[in-house]
Amino acid sequence: MLTIRSANRQGVIFHLHAGSGVTEAELPDAVRDALAHLERSGKGLQA
């Protein structure tokens, strides 16, 4: 569905997988889950 390609000081790059069957309604939750994973691993977004 969605993987993190890179996360660094310049930002985060997500990869959306074609044919994964994800709906537009599910996409925001997938992004939130990925951002939460980054936060837990100490690489969360900072202002």
Can you give a write-up of this model?
The chain has one helix at 27-40; strands spanning 2-8, 11-16. The protein is an alpha+beta fold. It has a two-stranded antiparallel sheet. Strand 1 and strand 2 form a beta hairpin. The model has no long low-confidence stretch (mean pLDDT 92).
Keywords:
elongated; single chain; 1 helix; alpha+beta; 28% strand; two-stranded antiparallel sheet; 47 residues; 2 strands
Outline:
This protein has 47 residues and is α+β, with helices and mostly antiparallel strands. The protein contains one helix and two strands, in the order E-E-H.
Number of strands: 2
Q: Radius of gyration from the CA trace?
A: 11 Å
Average pLDDT for all residues: 92
Biggest sheet overview = 2 strands, antiparallel
| Count of separate structural domains | 1
